[in-house]
């Protein structure tokens, strides 16, 4: 029996359950946290499951983008959409920097480089004055998205977060069924698929470390300051 043909039905039921969850007694803030980590895991699976690139520093993108978004909104007075954009750029930049060093090694050595860089970022964030140290950023205002949607409402924030997660998940699905996946599978020993896709090894490896999963991991991170914070 082909299980894949039932996948759209399962996804549809899951989406329906998430839509009605707040009206069935589920706490919106708690479900938002679950959505953030679900998307985080999906982005990690995209990188590891389809390219074979193991990164032990994926939490750096979650935390780094969250700090940038929270700081931009709280200190710089940025609007929510600009804060999200700042988080996106921060996640992509971190991926570019870490990928620059990691792709120069293979296997466990590349993996340990990602872990080392993530630990460096962790201790830097722990000591930096603007991050709040162990307490983290407190009192991050949610504001109004595009000047219209008041995110101080948990219910409004929940559905905005749900839309972001669904769009990001569809992007992951599209990536999986694109030529990029065929080429990226060369990292798992399927070099023939990579050559048929007309993609070279090192640029593809750099793209995988920089693009596959990094900005997507930043998506839940950018929502994190508001999901974790009380509305103000």
* Average pLDDT, all residues: 77
Largest sheet: 2 strands, antiparallel
Distance between the termini: 51 Å
Low-confidence region ranges: 189-204, 206-213
Give a structural overview:
There is one protein chain. This protein is mainly alpha-helical. 68% of the residues lie in helices and 2% in strands. The chain is built from ten helices and two strands. It has a two-stranded antiparallel sheet with strand order 1-2. A hairpin with a 3-residue loop joins strand 1 (144-145) and strand 2. Helix 2 packs parallel to helix 6, helix 2 runs antiparallel to helix 10 (214-228) and helix 4 (80-102) runs antiparallel to helix 9. The longest helix has 24 residues, at 28-51. The model is unreliable at 189-204 and 206-213 (pLDDT under 50).
Helix-strand layout with pairing:
Blueprint: H1 7-20, H2 28-51, H3 59-74, H4 80-102, H5 108-127, E1 144-145, E2 149-150, H6 154-176, H7 179-184, H8 191-196, H9 201-211, H10 214-228
Antiparallel strand pairs: 1-2
Helix pairs in contact: 2-6, 2-10, 3-4, 3-5, 3-10, 4-5, 4-9, 4-10, 6-10
Brief rundown of the structure:
This protein is mainly α and 232 residues long.
Relevant terms:
232 residues, mainly alpha, 10 helices, 2 strands, 68% helix, globular
């Amino acid at each position: 029996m082909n299980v894949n043909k039932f996948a759209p039905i399962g996804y549809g039921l899951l989406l329906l359950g998430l839509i009605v969850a707040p009206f069935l007694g589920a706490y919106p803030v708690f479900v938002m946290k679950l959505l953030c980590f679900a998307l985080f895991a999906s982005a990690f699976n995209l990188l590891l499951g389809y390219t074979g690139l193991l990164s032990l520093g994926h939490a750096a993108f979650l935390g780094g983008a969250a700090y940038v978004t929270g700081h931009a909104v709280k200190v710089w007075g940025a609007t929510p959409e600009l804060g999200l954009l700042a988080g996106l750029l921060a996640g992509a930049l971190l991926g570019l920097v870490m990928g620059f060093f990691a792709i120069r090694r293979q296997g466990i050595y590349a993996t340990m480089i990602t872990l080392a860089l993530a630990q460096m970022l962790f201790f830097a964030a722990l000591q930096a004055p603007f991050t709040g140290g162990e307490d983290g950023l407190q009192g991050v205002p949610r504001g109004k998205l595009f000047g219209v949607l008041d995110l101080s409402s948990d219910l409004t924030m929940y559905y905005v977060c749900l839309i972001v997660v669904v769009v990001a998940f569809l992007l992951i699905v599209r990536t999986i069924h694109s030529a990029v996946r065929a080429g990226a599978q060369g990292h798992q020993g399927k070099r023939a698929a990579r050559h048929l896709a007309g993609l070279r090894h090192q640029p593809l490896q750099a793209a995988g470390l920089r693009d596959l999963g990094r900005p997507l991991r930043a998506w839940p991170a950018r929502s994190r300051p508001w999901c974790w914070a009380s509305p103000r």
